[in-house]
Amino acid sequence: MATLEIRDLHVAVEADGGPREILSGVDLTVRAGETHALMGPNGSGKSTLAYSIAGHPKYHVTSGSVTLDGSDILALSVDARARAGVFLAMQYPVEVPGVSLSNFLRTSVTAVRGEAPKLRHWIKELKESMSGLSMDASFAERNVNEGFSGGERKRSEILQFELLGPKIAILDETDSGLDVDALRVVSEGINRVRAKGETGTLLITHFTRILRYVQPDFVHVFVAGRVVEEGGPELAERLENEGYEKFLGVPA
Asked: Is residue 141 a contact partner of residue 101, using CB atoms and an 8 Å limit?
């Protein structure tokens, strides 16, 4: 079973006056088949954690470790991390002009699987996944995210998630900007991957509404760059009722 282990992770960014620490000793373990909800207020460092795991050059790991199945992924390039099985669904998916969604996905799948899927099987696999996400087949020939609405971009991210079948998936505020119908469809896509039991999922969110569709096994409260409380699904309900105010004064 795949296991992502984050130990005492400290991350900083360059700022006026020198490096500014954003993550202040994060400890978290995500195993295949588990779904972890990471919840916290704006500016708490949730997205920084996501991008640091994925390898964004803006974020500098100053100490600590991140391993996947015991191997140091911080030593890997961004594309090597993806090939190793780490997937990031971005909060703000970007456009890729000149590259069709179909070609982008087939190239990505080839890199992860180690060989290109046979074209006949690939077309069938792509159509089935797109149908499950209520995406019109014409989107396969459109440039990646170009002219897509916010909801269409999020469906495109979950389409990648389904087709790549990663060991560890980090879904950064996948629910943001979605209406109730799009949220349901996207959640169903997430749950189809979860049902296979082969992927560990770290679901980053502010709100509990997606957790009504995607039931977490563990909930972590993230404040000031670290986990300050952990629990089960009942913790998310407490946050819905009480907010984050009680955690904002937790000493470091």
From this structure: yes
The CA-based angle 112-144-158, given to 5 degrees, is: 60
CATH of domain 3-94+166-245: 3.40.50.300
Task: Answer whether 161's CB lies under 8 Å from 181's CB.
Answer: no
Q: Give residue-wise pLDDT tens across range 125-165.
A: 999 999 999 999 999 999 999 999 988 999 999 999 999 99
Does residue 97 carry a pLDDT above 70?
yes
For the chain, the structural domain boundaries read: 3-94+166-245
Length of the chain: 252
- Say whether pTM exceeds 0.85: yes
Tell me the three state secondary structure of residue 149. coil
Mean pLDDT of the chain: 93
Q: Enter the tokens of residue 207.
A: 């709100």
Give residue 190's identity as a one-letter amino acid code.
Answer: I
